[in-house]
UniProtKB/TrEMBL annotation:
Enzyme Commission (EC) number: 1.-.-.-
UniProt protein name: Flavin-containing monooxygenase
Known catalytic reactions: hypotaurine + NADH + O2 + H(+) = taurine + NAD(+) + H2O; hexan-3-one + NADPH + O2 + H(+) = propyl propanoate + NADP(+) + H2O; octan-3-one + NADPH + O2 + H(+) = pentyl propanoate + NADP(+) + H2O; NADPH + O2 + H(+) = H2O2 + NADP(+)
Family per record: Belongs to the FMO family.
Taxonomic source organism: Mytilus edulis (Blue mussel)
SUPFAM superfamilies linked: FAD/NAD(P)-binding domain
UniProt xrefs under Gene3D superfamilies: FAD/NAD(P)-binding domain
Keywords assigned: Endoplasmic reticulum, FAD, Flavoprotein, Lipid metabolism, Membrane, Methylation, Microsome, Monooxygenase, NADP, Oxidoreductase, Phosphoprotein, Transmembrane, Transmembrane helix
Protein's job: Acts as a Baeyer-Villiger monooxygenase on a broad range of substrates. Catalyzes the insertion of an oxygen atom into a carbon-carbon bond adjacent to a carbonyl, which converts ketones to esters. Active on diverse carbonyl compounds, whereas soft nucleophiles are mostly non- or poorly reactive. In contrast with other forms of FMO it is non- or poorly active on 'classical' substrates such as drugs, pesticides, and dietary components containing soft nucleophilic heteroatoms. Able to oxidize drug molecules bearing a carbonyl group on an aliphatic chain, such as nabumetone and pentoxifylline.
Family matches, as InterPro entries: FAD/NAD-bd_sf, Flavin_mOase, Flavin_mOase-like, Flavin_mOase_5, FMO-like
GO cellular component: endoplasmic reticulum membrane
Top EC group: oxidoreductase
GO molecular-function terms, A-Z: flavin adenine dinucleotide binding; N,N-dimethylaniline monooxygenase activity; NAD(P)H oxidase H2O2-forming activity; NADP binding; trimethylamine monooxygenase activity
Cofactor: FAD
Length: 296
């Protein structure tokens, strides 16, 4: 079995695109270390929205003598034993990394600007949360009884597990306004003190981090940014898709609306309620049907 490995240099419509719907790719054959052009009838871009690391730049950060990394580059807890670690960002990656590191580090801090609602992965009767609630009937009931009531009911249920205000996690936004964190162990780590919440970073010192509440933690060994990603398609001609402030216009979250021939699609560039792979499969099925229509 032979596997071909190419690096995509550019993707642009062929000269006769309006008639043929074809695409010209410039690729680098990594095995032969040479570039070549290939023409394809259709293109599926499946790079998703976790593309380029989003790294903030705080005052004094370049003078910090500890280690600075993005959660994208974090693999396991080896090497973090007995370290003092600050994790910045309270999304799923930040929560998972902070919980893991708090088991081996001497002290872990989780820095957040706004707090977050925290869901369990496992919900009622031991069923996965998305299996239980990410269903058509749930959204139909939401439309019937109204969003505000659903917000109150969902908040009441979450607060039965732990009081978000008491733990310093309660955000100003409602439960359905932003993506929540899904984490089973975060409250346990906060209660044990191995993980401590901090507000947003104000500035770095040579060996520590100052926060917006006026506190400073010194002797910090590692700062990990779990601050998300900036997505884009650097290999794609801007006349096809243009990303502005991390947003892109796509019909059905799949198709660039301005193409004369719909022979290019974006797969997986969507925030799913639940697993992304089934959504991507449905997107792919639709895309291949649209491609087929374009060549009938």
């Amino acid at each position: 079995m032979v596997f071909l490995c190419f690096e995509i240099k550019s993707v642009k419509p062929a000269d006769d695109f309006e008639i043929s719907g074809q695409w010209e790719l410039k690729v680098k054959d990594l095995a032969k270390d040479e570039e070549q052009s290939i023409t394809y009838d259709a293109i599926m871009i499946c790079t998703g929205h976790h593309a380029e690391k989003n790294m903030p730049d705080f005052p004094g950060m370049h003078n910090f003598k500890g280690k600075v990394l993005h959660s994208h580059d974090y693999r396991h807890t080896a090497g973090y034993e007995d370290k003092r670690v600050v994790v910045v960002g309270i999304g799923n990656s930040g929560g998972d990394a902070a919980v893991e590191l708090s088991r081996v580090a001497s002290q872990t801090y989780l820095s957040t600007r706004s707090g977050s609602w925290v869901y369990n992965r496992i919900s009622d009767r031991g069923l996965p949360l998305d299996m239980l609630y990410a269903r058509r009937i749930t959204f139909a009931l939401k439309n019937m009884i109204g969003g505000p009531l659903v917000e109150r009911l969902a908040q009441k249920k979450l607060e039965q597990r732990f009081d978000h205000s008491m733990y310093g996690l309660k955000p100003k936004h409602g439960i359905l306004a932003q993506h929540p964190m899904v984490n089973d162990e975060l409250p346990n780590r906060l209660a044990s003190g191995t993980l401590k919440l901090k507000p947003n970073i104000k500035h770095f010192t040579e060996n520590g981090v100052a926060f917006e509440d006026g506190t400073t933690e010194n002797d910090i060994d590692v700062v990990m940014f779990a601050t998300g990603y900036v997505f884009g398609f650097p290999f794609l001609d801007e006349s096809v898709i243009k990303v502005v402030k991390n947003k892109v216009e796509l019909y059905k979250y799949i198709f660039p609306p301005n193409l004369k021939r719909q022979t290019l699609c974006i797969i997986g560039c969507v925030q799913a309620l639940g697993a992304l792979m089934p959504v991507s499969e449905m997107q792919s099925r639709l895309a291949t049907r649209v491609f087929k229509v374009n060549y009938m």
